[in-house]
Specification:
This protein has strands at 2-3, 6-14, 17-18, 21-23, 27-30, 53-56, 64-66, 69-70, 73-79. By secondary structure, the chain is mainly β. The chain starts with a strand and ends with a strand.
Length: 80
């Protein structure tokens, strides 16, 4: 579309999406420190833990299930 010295382009677009997800969360326990230890201190000079870690559910682990849907549509006008 021409309007004198300006040219215009019309851009349109659409997006449709659906996603389903389930999250199963577990807490890591450092069993070499203690059965219910969820943190461990390591030396600053060698900040790497090499002991065993056991993963199991805790009462505060938040599991969830979600089915988000999105249907955005756009229409833009762009001038050159």
């Amino acid at each position: 579309m021409d309007t004198g010295p300006f040219k215009h382009k019309f851009l349109t677009g659409a997006e449709f999406g659906r996603q389903e997800t389930s999250n199963y969360r577990e807490t890591g326990y450092f069993t070499a420190v203690g059965r219910n230890a969820t943190s461990v201190n390591v030396p600053l000079a060698y900040p790497r833990y090499e002991g065993p870690v056991a993963f199991r559910q805790s009462a505060t682990d938040a599991d969830n299930h979600a089915s988000p849907q999105s249907w955005p549509a756009t229409c833009r006008t762009r001038s050159n």
